[in-house]
Specification:
By secondary structure, the chain is of the alpha+beta class. A six-stranded mixed beta sheet has the order 9-8-7-12-11-10. Strand 10 and strand 11 form a beta hairpin. The longest helix is centred in the middle third of the chain and has 14 residues.
Length: 157
């Protein structure tokens, strides 16, 4: 499919829809960032209501400006992340890790079931952590953390 023929919009409000030119309409779609997460805005998958892929958009820049704005808004909503600024306490018990952190959205407590499955390095010092509820926490540069936070992080990674 030619990405320029794709039109993304919300109708009714809060429900993402897709039309493909004059040919087809999908009343409910979902947007997912495929791989790699380190390249936002590339390889975005649009799925229908049955979670079947409609199209994989190589770059959001290939969409019309209106559809690109909707796609970017939807990706921000789906992949909302809190940026960890300090780790005040971390504790591991039986493979479960309990975190107390300061984020750009205030203090947060969260639980991670399996660090090996729930932590992804996006670069040498950029870490993405997903908790048991699917909430995402980001450490943009673990080298920039204060010494106490680095120590806490070193205890579990």
């Amino acid at each position: 499919m030619n990405p320029e023929t794709l039109t993304l919009f919300y109708e009714p409000p809060g429900t993402l829809r897709l039309t493909v030119g004059e040919e087809k309409s999908y009343p409910k779609v979902s947007l997912y960032q495929s791989a790699p997460l380190s390249k936002p805005g590339e390889y975005v998958s649009l799925l229908d209501s049955k979670s079947e892929e409609i199209v994989l958009v190589r770059r959001l820049s290939e969409l019309t400006s209106e559809s690109r704005a909707v796609a970017e808004q939807e990706l921000k909503r789906r992949y909302l992340t809190a940026k960890i600024q300090a780790i005040t306490k971390v504790k591991q018990e039986f493979g479960v890790t309990y975190w107390h952190v300061e984020t750009d959205r205030g203090p947060r407590d969260f639980v991670v079931q399996s660090l090996s499955e729930s932590c992804a390095y996006l670069s040498d010092s950029h870490l993405l952590i997903t908790d048991v509820d699917g909430c995402r926490f980001e450490i943009e540069n673990q080298n920039a953390l204060d010494e106490a936070s680095k120590k806490h992080l070193g205890q579990v990674l």
